[in-house]
Amino acid sequence: MSTTPYRLRNRLTVHYLESGSEYSSSCSEEDEENQKEDNTVSSGQKTPEKMKAASTLPPSSTLAKKNKESKMSNLVEEYFEAHSSSKVLTSDRTLQKLRRRRLSQQTLRDLLKKAPLAYAAEITELNQLHESLFSKWMLQLHLGFNIVLYGLGSKRDLLEKFRTSLLQDSVHLVVNGYFPSITVRSILNSITEEVLDHIGTFRSPLDQLDFIIERFKEDSSLELYVLIHNLDSQMLRGERSQQILAQLSSLPHIYLIASVDHINAPLMWDQAKLSLYNWLWYETTTFSPYVEETSYENSLLVQQSGSLALSSLTHVLRSLTLNARGIFRLLAQYQLENKDNPSYPGLSFQDFYQQCREAFLVNSDLTLRAQLTEFRDHKLIRTKRGADGVEYLLIPVDDSTLTDFLDKEDEDV
Amino acid sequence: MSTCSVSKGCFVFKPSPKKRRVSQKTAVHFSEGKNDLEDSELRFYTCQSLWNQIKLETEQIQEDLNKQLLDNLVSFLGRSHSEFQGKTTDWTCRMKSREIPTAALVLGVNVTDHELTFRNLSEALQNITPYIALLEAKDCPGIKNLMQKLMGQLMNCSTDVVSLEDDDYVQVSQNRIRCSMKSVVDWYESVTKKTDSETLSKKRTSSAKHQQSPPVVVIFKDMESFTTKVLQDFIVISSQHIRELPLVLIFGIATSPMIIHSLLPHSVSSLLCIELFQSFSCKEHLSTIIDKLLLTSRFPFKLGEKVLQVLINIFLYHDFSVWNFIRGFQLCIVEHFYSEPLSVLCCQLTDAKKRVNSLSHEQCENVRRLPSFRRYVERQEAEKQIALLTADSFLKETTQKLLEDLHVYHENYVSVLKCLHVFTCSLPKYPLGKQIRELHCACLENRVWETEDYETSLQLARMLNKSDLETMLQQCVEILVSSSGNELDKAVEKLKEFLTQFQKLEAEAFQEQDVSVSSQKELQKKTDLYHLQKTLLELKDSRRSKKLTKFEMLRFEVVDYIDSLVRRYLVPADHKTLHEIVYFNTASVLRGHLNAAPRIALHTALNNPYSYLKNQALKCDSGSISSKAPDICIVYKLHLECGRLINLVDWLEAFSTVVTAVDEPNADAASSDQVDDIIHARFIRAVSELELLGFIKPSKQKTDHVARLTWGGC
Questions:
Q1: So what family is this one in (chain B) (predicted)?
Q2: Between A and B, how many residue pairs show a Cβ–Cβ distance under 8 A?
Q3: pTM above 0.90, yes or no
């Protein structure tokens, strides 16, 4: 381009005249985001219409934008301040010291059920506003656009409602993106196996995709609605997954409607993917709690539910001999005795053998090794080789589960 | 069936076949969920047919623009392997034949637009050779995949040709043969031999279409994204076989031809015989599109100023993608027809007049509600006002007339705009913009003649030299003559008159020259100092108050005339009555759908929940933390006050302090460390939601700490 576009130049000169010092910063912002560029426009100068246009945009407030504008510079400074030194000044208190340290998933759920949902009336009002757009979404899906929903609050219920009210009579696929072991492969599999009734496997997802594309091209009566909750989840945000999903969504008879929540979600897509997706963005702020979406999350504050590990422990051990149980008990007790020692490496094999002999559990180190192999196969123990070449044994279960296990064993005996 | 499960993430729902609607009509959704059902079917039909027309038009435009490029490429292909056919033993030919003929196709950064170009390209190449393979980087992570894809495409296309004639041709599955260049060569030999014998048997009737040994074309759609290793290997391997296999490569390049040399080392690039082809730029493409779609009276649908500005901004600042521009245009059309009940009249004038007659009473009311129409009514006399507001038939009559006015206005607008552009596009510094779209926007925005830029450009136009002025006038005449409006005939005559006057001036110019020469002679004659001073002063005086030369007078006249044309015809569209019917003006909708800002929406919701939840309790200034805000907002605001790491215990404490502040102001001091269970649970939920949104993540640096991930608000 030989000269700067006329509009931009105009804007810049006006800006330059009004606030010479801000010139460079506003200029660098121009290409980043159009929204930002609008901000610089509406910040000081002549365009009252632009301001009006921005404020007619549903509820996004110009107030917040203005705030942002003025804070912009010191927020940047804040960032560098926080990252300038490696030392972090926070208090040393830990959750251990609180009376109620961690809640289990179940108690958390029960507690939250008791807490009333704040502003329920307003939230339903918001939802009704979004629901009035359902038929428009259908229209736009049919015209070749795909729809992506963003905004604060769980959009699961909204999409479910869309599904139950409009998609009952058509083939559709619901994908829970937040599901921790979802993969593109499983999405493709459910399309080929359940939608297209194809039996057989594919060598790679690309082959599978080709097959699907081929089938949809051949048979123009095939139609498929795909609903993806959390397209930006950990498992789906990878480049290759997004590429495949984008290609899928570009098929004329596949209608995709998805939701994104992560603040950096738009960074997943480059121009090529964006043009395949052909998105229409819809702001659907619902303020509903992310109940399903966070239920799989390993939060710091939620106690890792050891119940699954515990039951598997007891089940495996029940099937073993009395001696074998004794051996495992020994190891567990030893580990619990050392639980306050952060550098506890595990029990060395020699020491363990000694202890087992003393308790009349084994008579040779060969029998102990045979026993340990059995444990290892069931993933009950882990062996590590220390720096001095000695073999150390560990039970890869957290202490509380182990305590529970021992208590239960005692009860049984 | 529920879609919650701990063991599954995908759920397929298939209704029973008899219940399944075979293919639901899109039109149903168009009318669904709206109260005003007026003419929705007709509106949808109009919308679709308009969009189809426009789509065809855009494809045509691109094809036309591509034509030159494609012709060049086709001739290049014809040339590339001429020696292969001739089997000449010429030394230079043999030297050259070691190199692979390669076409480097510079297509520009708008990668998403290239799809159509490549489609046109492979269609055009079909005339020369049936053996074309299109490769994309994402399919070829390794040389093995590349060969597989290549052979798959080549052999498929050959079977298409052959299987029609002989059925005993055994199609070899690509899995069974080993993917190597050798097998490609073998395949090529067998195929060409076959066609040779066929053509011989047919006494070379069809040989004119395909040459004896058509080249094998391999197109790399996006050369930059290929792994260098794969490209290098492929080139080295195929250069070994170039004598048996007439291979031609085509590289699609988005950046600059230099990329070939930075991707490939000299030893590899020397195996290529590269010829460069430049496609048209995306800017040109956009200008043509705007010219053909917007600045024409062929399509009744128009874009308002702000909408056009949004679309152009997305193009210039985001992607340079014409395809995206057209997509935005499509969205505008759909939105317009969906949201404006009167858009049923947005069609060709003759149809529109017919449709006006069959308008329902409701629709007539809609017409009366249009702001521009109300302004129009206010300007009428009292009795006419009453008639317009009460009698539907009179209203319809007036509407027809107004629609016709609007149509005429458009026709004149476009031609006069083009004329004005002829004048402004060559002025120094381009005060009204270089492109016609900028001028168009300026004219749509407000009365262009009231702007400063217009003033300056008129002043500059008054300083144009004669030859420029003449060519410009000539161009204007051509534009006006080609336009269909009859109102402008007078303007054409006037401009032609100006032109003849200019020619007359030329004749008179001689005489003027004589005058000036004689005055100079006078100067030379008088040597007396006093007289010299006097004459110089006189000369200066005469120059200052100099009555303008005839040329200058004429120039003023021309500029004034253009100015009068502008004032008369380039009235902004929203001053016109009934403009709402054909102009789409809601830019905010468009911006929200195409250029959304999810981060800002999220930030606003967290920072100022009142903007979404209209509850008076939430109304507060954004500085303080209100205890009534939703939990996640409180937690978010508290986290903004923290540094890089956040201590969960402190955070929890702060949260419970804020939440309980109003509820129990005289809370037990002793139970400060015993946080209420429910508050604890709410805190946990809010924190895990923030984690889901990507504001924090668990950190291992310190026990029970999370790291903050965002800086700078949103």
A1: Belongs to the ORC3 family.
A2: 345
A3: no
